[in-house]
Description:
The protein is an alpha/beta fold and 248 residues long.
Amino acid sequence: MSDTPVQRDTSTTAAVIPAAGRGVRLGPGAPKALRTLNGTPMLIHAVRAMAASRSVSLVVVVAPPDGAAEVASLVDEFQLPTGTEVLVVPGGETRQQSVALGIAVLPASVTTVLVHDAARPLVPVETVDAVIETVRNGAAAVVPAVPLADTVKQVDPRPDGGPEPVVATPERARLRAVQTPQGFDRELLARAHATVTGDVTDDASMVEQLGVQVVVVPGHEEAFKVTRPLDLVLAEAVLARRRANHGF
Ligand code: C5P
């Protein structure tokens, strides 16, 4: 009998990709996840980014509620690395509902869950692996994040477009801009989705509301979120640079 401590390295890791948003800030057109970057839908780039990690054995794509069949045929059409299963399920009204619908179909064997925005198609595999490793080493909730270039002001918002009074200036050195994939112990994430209500913009903040410690690991500049039209230009430039450097 061995007295080696039981570790989570036999754990199965799955990634849930919420991709059910309309992406209105990008302008009119197809749902954001289906917009193409160099001819390939953003969502497919995001699935490949998760499947690039040898630890990820299942990717659950949460599709627009009326577009699950279309997304399923896209996943079939584009080549994905072998050894990773991809499931497509219809999403919900909010990002939180979409993530919860993805978690609901995970097999019992999954112990570590990544939640990754389809809108971050270019996250490098090193970032994905760093998040998974930190969860496997015992952290229950892990987020990749980068320091801010801009100083941030808290304001009293004026929806009418008038000048907004500044309320506070948080110390920039203590702030981080949070990216995805965010990694969780599966049971903790399921509990957060079952109990926390109210508007949140990421999964880690739901875990924070349960009083559980979330930790940050270094994110990556290429894990930026494609939100506005200029981000599409930047994403295609990143892909062109990768092709020039690595031939793909
Ligand atoms: O709107 P935002 O950019 O924060 O969306 C983040 C991610 O959540 C996107 O990948 C989007 O497709 C997804 N989402 C979703 N279901 C919704 C709304 C957003 O899956 N109802």
